[in-house]
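Appendix B, Record 12. Input sequence as logged:
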Amino acid sequence: MPDAATMASILEEHVCPVIGAILSTLTFAAPIRTLAECLKDGDMKSVNGTPWIFMTGNTIGWLAYSYVTLDIYVFLANAPGLMISIWLNFGAMKLQYYQEAIKDFEDGAADSDSSQQQNERKPSLTKHEARLLLMVLTWMLILSVTTLKMEMTSDRKQVIGIAVNINLVFFYGAPLSSMLTVIKTRSSATIHFGTMTMNTVNAFFWCVYSLAIQDYYILIPNGLGLLFGMVQLLLYSVFPRSAVETDGTEEQFIREDDDAVSRSSVTEIT
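Logged structural output:
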């Protein structure tokens, strides 16, 4: 029978990352329902698709990191996320182009030649497409340099690890913005409790794993994610969720938006 040390090693180096990979995939998949509804309605509404671009960069970076370090758990945590992010970005691009086409049609509706202008309209590059292409190009350059110019595995690990952590900085804008909103309005309505809890637990498992294998490139983003998650849990317990006062006379109830799943989540997934 395995001794306590062996059991602890199995738990830290295998069980924790397996659970983390499952939670990572669930978090990546969170915006799917929201985008499906947007595609059905033909309108992005107030959904912000920009985090999905960084999701693509995030997963590309961590997949490259998994190849360099031969870490199967990091690979399993991000391979599904890359596929999901591609679908999310394609959906956002289609909706953005559709909305631009509708806007052009409405703007030209008053002109006598509006129908001719509409027929002559050619597909254009949307902002979302341009940003996604820039993200992919950036990672192509990084990976080209690390694979073609660097012979030492340690050097490749360092460059990719730093690059993917820089990419994650942009994700922390979402939870920080959410926390500032909670403090300003004294209402935790903008915090999605399920996603917040899942992200915090997920970050905990990856922290345990990174400490076990002594990989600080994994530890730093997940440590920050764990910290932000605990702060959000504290804010959620301190401030009421249901309502905020307006004009001192009435209460305005805040509906929990499905897209809060993607907007409030900290993508510290490795």
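The chain is about 75% helix and 5% strand.
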